[in-house]
Amino acid sequence: MEEGKKIKHTTGTRNKLAGLVLVIAILVGFPPLLSSYWVGLLTEMLIFATLAMSLDILVGYTGMPSLSHAGFFGVAAYTVAILSTRHQAGFWLCLLGGIAMGVFAGAVLGLFVSHVKSVYFLMITLALGMVLWGLSYRWIPMTGGDNGISGIPSLEAHTGLPLAGPLPFYYVTLFVFALCGSLMALFVSSPFGHTLKGIRESESRMSSLGVNTWLHRYLCYIVAGAFASVAGILWAYYNGFVSPSYLDLTASVELFFMVTLGGAGTLVGPALGAGIIVFLKNFISAYTDRWLLILGTVYILAIFFAPRGLWNRFLRKARNRERITSRP
Amino acid sequence: MTEKQTGFGHRKGSNVENTVPCLALENLTKDFGGLRAVAKITLSIQPGERHVFMGPNGAGKTTLFNLISGEIPATDGRIVLFGRDVTQLASYQRAALGIARTFQITNLLPNLTVFENLLLACEALSRTKFVMLWPVSRYGHLLERAQHLLNDFGLGELRDEPVKNISYGDQRKVEVALSLATRPRLLLLDEPMAGLSSSETHSMDLLLKKLDPAITVLLIEHDMDVALAFAEKITVLHQGQVLAQGTKDEIRTNPMVQEIYLGVDVE
């Protein structure tokens, strides 16, 4: 029994490592062979993967189903846009400013959302998301309203580093994605991350054990906001343009679907989900105007065949297979 | 049970407690709308006491526990814990002062494993719980404590099972283990035996007898035999009020208590 357990464990770890190496090899080695359209698409996938993972910290690990998460993304993107175009701020100021504004937004909005739960949490984040969208749409002197803000300098121009073209930007994004992904993986496996899972499971139990559940939810909300703003900053540089459409409800709901399609509470799943949805959106919409129909079909199929997300389904299958093969 | 187990509850400054009651309730009242669930209860519990609360369904026993542990706010009255007024404190603050409890309706972290449940309970009162950028596996002393608890409660085999998959009896054990993980000075046990088979009841009974004598234990229990075997003092509640209080012999011979437990109306 003990022996079998050990063997199972090592094959599991080996499979995981092999998978990780394979994914890294593909993400690093493959893009130079692709056209710039595909490189751009991959970049977009990675940006949204980072964003979806940050939402997963809230949805999957803490049980805070936020519908305003695109707001952080937008706040950071607008900060970069405003600082770089109107105030001619340098790269580092834009970077730090974007993250700082994301954290600030998290700290302020967190005060409103951290004490509410489940459906009420959905409702209040929905409302706050709409407020942020309303600000970007109506606060015209600051945000340019519907026109958005264009003319954000390219990463090359802004940093002074030789990063022209889609491929170098892709590698920068890949680096940021890997960095944020590792930090988030560390975060959820930390003692603090464990308390979040505990709060998701039973808040009253955690509180009677001595955990200030409000504070933990609040801090978690800010951390998730910080990671989302990193994605927002990348997005601003990638697009060179920001507009309210990335803050609206559709954006937040789509983000939510990325998390649930891939599998909440796994980090890997939401990254996968983001990749799939960004791909479908871009690829299918090139062929047909009815791509929303196809996206909707994908959601319905996912609900039928992988209600807990693709990655969770895959994990369960792999576990079952292992159990069968490791039987003496 | 090992020495680790009996070591629970030894905290600094325990000599001060001997002069101050562990827990004092003064006119404690809780109204749910028009219903007075707990009505002006005043009582004092000494450190190390084994105190059983009895009473028919709806007598206000669990509500009283919820008030003491801070799950729900009191309508009126005061709760004094170790000489300190805690009436306004939240449940996590009271936990930090040394209260721990079990729940009548099992309240665990169902999708986490038995070990993760215990580990979380061990880190709940340490500063480590705020560490965000080191994996929890790095904190050997916490892992060790959780493992000790696991062994002490005979749950070693179930270490990596999600709590939702283990038997009800084992869940009740985890429930008690979680409450001891924080090294409480005052332990509230809300019907730990309810729904257990007779052999499970027996092992739970042994477990309760082996609790560190320094821990003050309040127990809600319906079973007269268990209550009389465990308690030094018994409080009988009825309709939110203290009907009778005293040593177990006094309670056993109290005619009003007998009437209630025989199902006869009290005039």
Structure characterization notes:
The complex is a heterodimer of chains A (328) and B (267). In chain A, helix 2 (36-62) runs antiparallel to helix 11 (213-239) and helix 3 (69-86) packs across helix 11. Helices cover 79% and strands 1% of the residues of chain A. The termini of chain A are close together. A two-stranded antiparallel ribbon of chain A has the order 1-2. Chain A has a domain at 34-246. Mean pLDDT of chain A is 86; it is low at 1-8. Chain A has helices at 2-29, 36-62, 69-86, 91-113, 118-138, 140-143, 155-159, 166-189, 191-201, 203-209, 213-239, 249-262, 268-285, 291-305, 310-325, and strands at 149-150, 241-242. Chain A is mainly alpha-helical and 328 residues long. Chain A has 15 helices and two strands. Chain B is of the alpha/beta class and 267 residues long. Chain B has a domain at 3-108 and 185-261: 3-Layer(aba) Sandwich (Rossmann fold), CATH 3.40.50.300. Chain B has a six-stranded mixed sheet, sandwiched between helices. Chain B has a four-stranded antiparallel sheet with strand order 2-1-4-5, covered by helices on one side. In chain B, strand 9 and strand 10 (241-247) form a beta hairpin. In chain B, helix 5 crosses helix 6. Chain B is globular and about 55 Å long. Chain B starts with a helix and ends in a 6-residue tail after the last helix. The model of chain B is unreliable at 1-17 (pLDDT under 50). Chains A and B meet through helix 8, helix 9, helix 10 and helix 11 of A and helix 4 and helix 5 of B.
Topology:
The complex is a heterodimer of chains A (328) and B (267).
Chain A: H1 2-29, H2 36-62, H3 69-86, H4 91-113, H5 118-138, H6 140-143, E1 149-150, H7 155-159, H8 166-189, H9 191-201, H10 203-209, H11 213-239, E2 241-242, H12 249-262, H13 268-285, H14 291-305, H15 310-325
Antiparallel strand pairs in A: 1-2
Helix pairs in contact in A: 2-8, 2-11, 2-12, 2-13, 3-4, 3-5, 3-11, 4-11, 8-9, 8-11, 9-10, 9-11, 12-13, 13-14
Chain B: H1 3-6, H2 14-17, E1 23-32, E2 35-45, E3 50-54, H3 61-69, E4 76-81, E5 84-85, H4 91-97, E6 99-101, H5 114-123, H6 140-152, H7 168-181, E7 186-190, H8 198-209, E8 216-220, H9 224-230, E9 233-238, E10 241-247, H10 248-253, H11 255-261
Parallel strand pairs in B: 3-8, 3-9, 6-7, 7-8
Antiparallel strand pairs in B: 1-2, 1-4, 4-5, 9-10
